Amino acid sequence: MGLEVLVYVPNIIGYIRVLLLLSATWFFDNPLLFIPCYVSSVILDGVDGYAARKLKQVSEFGAWFDVVIDILGRGILWSILFRWGYFIAALEWCVFVCTHNSLGADWKNKFGSSPWI
Fold first, then answer.
1. Distance between CA 45 and CA 72 in Å, rounded?
2. Would residue 29 show up in a list of annotated catalytic residues for this protein?
């Protein structure tokens, strides 16, 4: 797997999601622009995973990139909506770094034996 992974369809969808999130942040004071940008990013989150499986373009980079975009989107929302939102966003980043570094790219599948909370 080389640099071609950067132009896989699911990753291109991810780049679009990043642009939508940045646009949503820019247009936060205008709900008519903010909501479609943010909601489109959320919808494309499901589309990129479907495309990755359907097109057989699943990759470690794609799995990592998808989660990074998810955390970025939630972090932006937390930080805009609440004064203490930066703390929640930073905590989520810490959890991501710890789980991704210790469990690897397959981290989602390694919680099967975790206790239900």
1. 12
2. no
Rounded CA gap, 38 and 31, in Å?
A: 10
- Annotate 12-39 with b (16+ C-beta within 10 A) or e (fewer): ebbebbeebbebbbebbeeeeebeebbe
Ranges of residues in the chain whose predicted pLDDT is under 70: 1, 101-117
What is the pLDDT at residue 110? 62
Catalytic residue among 45, 66, 70, 106: 70
In terms of Cα–Cα distance, which of 10, 6, 9, 74 is closest to 45?
Answer: 10
Task: Report the pLDDT value the prediction gives residue 60, as an integer from 0 to 100.
Answer: 85
User: Under the phi-then-psi rule, with left for phi > 0, alpha for psi from -120 to 50, and beta for the rest, what region is 24?
Assistant: alpha
